[in-house]
Structures are given as structure tokens and as C-alpha cells.
């Protein structure tokens, strides 16, 4: 035999001041007490508020994700440019090093 919601432990948590009663038979079984309806209404309202807060949080998280992706793409482009500049500077350094080594070699040859 299955219990109805109002006979369950969940319903009892919603109305701790009430005693557990057997469900009446017939038309009286459809009647819901004011306390039970009020408890159900409170639970529904809390659920609606929770859904609203979660939707707002989701929207904010999606906005932050879009901003982070934009920032990441900007940083990636900057990183690529800086890497190219670094490679160019290293090539220039190597070229200058070779020229200095040639000059030093020529100075050594003159001193002999």
C-alpha cells in the first residue's frame, strides 16, 4: 500500500506540529487542510525563488564566460605578436653577435 504525499515523512516535515492521521475515505480524502495547503504553497514559492536565483546565476556565469573567452582571444593575439617580436629580436641579437665576433677576429689579426 503506497502512502499519499500528505502521509509521507516529507509532509510531516512541512507540518511538524500536526500528528500523522490516516487519510479519510471517500470525498473527505480530497479535502486538504489549510495548514497542508499553506505548507505546499510555501514550498512551491521557495522552489520558484530558487529557480529564479539559479537562472540569474547562470546568466551571470554565461556573461563571465563570454568575457573570459574574449579576453583569452585578445591575450592569445598579443602573445603571438610578442613571440614574433621576441624571435625578431633574437635574430637581430645573433646577427649583432656575429658582427662583433668578426670585428674581434679582425682586431686579433691586427695585433699579431
Overview of the structural elements:
With 112 residues, this protein is mostly helical. It has one domain. The chain has two helices and no strands. The chain has helices at 9-14, 34-111. The longest helix is centred in the middle third of the chain and has 78 residues, at 34-111. The termini are far apart.
In short:
With 112 residues, the chain is mostly helical. Helices cover 75% and strands 0% of the residues.
Keyphrases for this structure?
about 110 residues; mainly alpha
Topology of this structure?
Blueprint: H1 9-14, H2 34-111
Strand residue content: under 5%
Q: What global shape is seen?
A: rod-shaped
The biggest sheet, with number of strands, parallel, antiparallel or mixed sense and barrel status, is: none
Uncertain residue ranges: none
Radius of gyration: 39 Å
User: What is the β-strand count?
Assistant: 0
- Counted by DSSP, the helix tally is 2
Amino acid at each position: 500500500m503506497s502512502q499519499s504525499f500528505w502521509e509521507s515523512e516529507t509532509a510531516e516535515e512541512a507540518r511538524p506540529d500536526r500528528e500523522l492521521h490516516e487519510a479519510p475515505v471517500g470525498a473527505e480524502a480530497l479535502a486538504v487542510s489549510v495548514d497542508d495547503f499553506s505548507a505546499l504553497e510555501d514550498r512551491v514559492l521557495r522552489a520558484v525563488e530558487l529557480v529564479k536565483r539559479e537562472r540569474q546565476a547562470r546568466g551571470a556565469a554565461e556573461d563571465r564566460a563570454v568575457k573570459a573567452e574574449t579576453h583569452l582571444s585578445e591575450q592569445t593575439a598579443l602573445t603571438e605578436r610578442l613571440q614574433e617580436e621576441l624571435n625578431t629580436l633574437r635574430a637581430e641579437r645573433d646577427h649583432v653577435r656575429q658582427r662583433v665576433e668578426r670585428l674581434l677576429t679582425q682586431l686579433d689579426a691586427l695585433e699579431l
